[in-house]
Amino acid sequence: MAEQGSQFELYPPGRPALVFYKADWCPHCRDFMPTFAAAEPILRNRMDMEIWTIDADRFPEILEEEGVSSFPTVHLHLPRSNPKRKTHRKVQYTSTHIHDTRTLLDWIAKHAHRYHHKKK
After folding, report:
1. What residue ranges do the domains of the chain occupy?
2. Computed over its alpha carbons, how large is the radius of gyration of the chain?
3. Per CATH, which fold does 2-119 belong to?
């Protein structure tokens, strides 16, 4: 996450970003954290992807900007195929399998594959 003035740039141009929005007081976030932590090194080794954990209490402005109102929330931001569009396409993880790293990785691979396939 690069700081740009007072704003954070979560989504570097041309790279996908996986963002986990959490709150320390949220029991479901604590339950999901090991799943996300297990997926992180696999993703870092296999994909050119930014991976962020955003704390709700520290960065409420980011949550508001992204429309995050429940926890845990995971978004995969994929660069648009048209380089003139500055925004990313956002896909939200909706699985209830919060203890299953394979389900999370399969979901990311499905959407990232579409991104990489369109990019070629």
Report:
1. 2-119
2. 14
3. Glutaredoxin (3.40.30)
Residues 6+ apart with CB under 8 A from 87: 80
Residue 28 pLDDT > 90: yes
Q: Is the pLDDT of residue 120 over 60?
A: no
Q: Provide the H-helix boundaries in the chain.
A: 27-46, 60-66, 101-119
Phi and psi (nearest 5°) for 58?
-85, -35
- Cβ neighbors of 16 (< 8 A, separation 6 or more) are 47, 48, 49, 50, 76, 77, 78, 79, 88, 112, 115
What pTM does this model have?
A: 0.79
The model's pLDDT over 90-113, given as tens digits with 9 standing for 90+, comes to 899 988 877 889 999 999 988 887
CA pair distance 8, 28, nearest whole angstrom: 26
Residue 43 CB neighbour total at 10 angstroms? 20
